[in-house]
User: Fold these one by one.
Assistant:
Number 1:
Amino acid sequence: AVATTLINEGMQGFTMEKVAAEAGVAKGTLYAYFKSKEDALEVTIDSIVEPLAVTLDNIAQSDMTPTEKLSRYSTLHFAFFDDNRDLFRVILHDREQAHAPKERFQDSRYWSFVQKLARIFEDGVHKGEFLPLPSLKVSSMFIDANISLVMQRLADKVTGNIDKDVELVMGVFLRGILANPGISKDASGD
């Protein structure tokens, strides 16, 4: 009921009265489960994101190479947001508009994903697959690359065709954008 109300009403029109009406219960009943509308929203997001977190745990513990794990993460990330696009279009838009993007860095869900991916990067370094770079920073950069592409997909109303976007993220992130990585001159040739 929380998700449906949020999708139908947007963040501005989201009230506990509307959630109660959607759920077919009295407003007071909701407060037996949630302290506030913010609490109801956070609990709902947690319950929706939890399967993604569990799947990431399974990927992290799998026998895949670190690169395969990252690719699988991106695939699941894009599919997850495609499947839940209406809800996250409202949530992400509101958070980008109303809050400073730095708040994401204080979110426990975000840090949980950063830490899980950091272990994948550390494994890749150990196996000689990745350069020895700060794993938490690289993990955060990788997640933000995926989030940025999700936001672009939402803005462009793109669904499906996930493989091309996964290849884009993986290609730019793992191989960079330099055509000739051995050349250190700037673009002007000076």
Number 2:
Amino acid sequence: ERGDYEEAKLQIDSIKILYPKAFEARKAGQALMLDVETKAQQKTLAYLDSTFQAKTKEFNAIKDKFTIEKNMHRSYLRFQVNEQGIMSMTSIYCGAGNIHHNKVKVIAPDGSFAETPSSKDSYETTDMNEKIEKADYKQGEDGNVIEFLHLNKDKNIRVEYMGDRTYKTTMSPTDRLAAANVYELAQILSAMEQIKKEQEEANLKIGFINKKKERKAQEEITD
């Protein structure tokens, strides 16, 4: 009645320890335990539904900030996120000659920095005599560069493209804001994805409990 389901489980479990021969009480306890488990999962689902709705509001509030960017004629860091909230970064280099870069280093004014490992996905092309290079880095395989940029979003960040030669530039305030906004969106989408998984788990548990109840009811009819 109080909704204190963990305490209820402990009390029911204690019956078989304290009163091992109280078979009817233990049997009744097992039946009650299934009801407790069901109520606990329903409570979890109600919480998850509320949390998901809150995250959906956050998502709707910021989603209109994002557009497809087609500006390819400059060197900059581009940030993307998929529907599962997995964020990635692309280092785009445009110049008169190739530098064959596959890593980037970002440096804060205090000298602290983060550096990607070599990209697993990079390519080069030429457009009207302009050399264009791209290298992709997924969050978690980015040498903590994405997190570093988020933590230093209000600071002037220098970027070094590292390859056969090093190209140096500075992130524009617009690019820093874009990185921060995509990071925020990624956090929301990731949280929503996690909530969906937990909702699915809770529903599976309820389904399992209901099947258990049906089996017990059938056993009682048989007895």
Number 3:
Amino acid sequence: LDHYARMVDVVDEVGAAITPGRSYADVFRRGQELLTQVTGKPPSWLTHVGHHIGLETEEEWITYREDLEIQPGMVINIELYSQAPTGDYIGDEETFVVDSRGSTRRSQLAREIQPL
């Protein structure tokens, strides 16, 4: 449960980094930095921290792209996972809407794990 809570916090902190004018690379590096804090080492497998959602059929992944910037009106999913001490991969995916001031999480599902 603690590992999951930490991953929810990571997704929220990456979501807070989604601000107009910030490059996709800035957001990617923030996710990489936060995952390193959770896992204790840089995640070599990390290829993206999320993707934008729009009217196009192709989604643009949030990677090291310095040439792409966050813009007001974007809808972005942040999805990050890491391996828990049990060996299971645990993470969270949330949807954020960008306005001129920053981003707001719009996902509505409960974020708590209910232990049996």
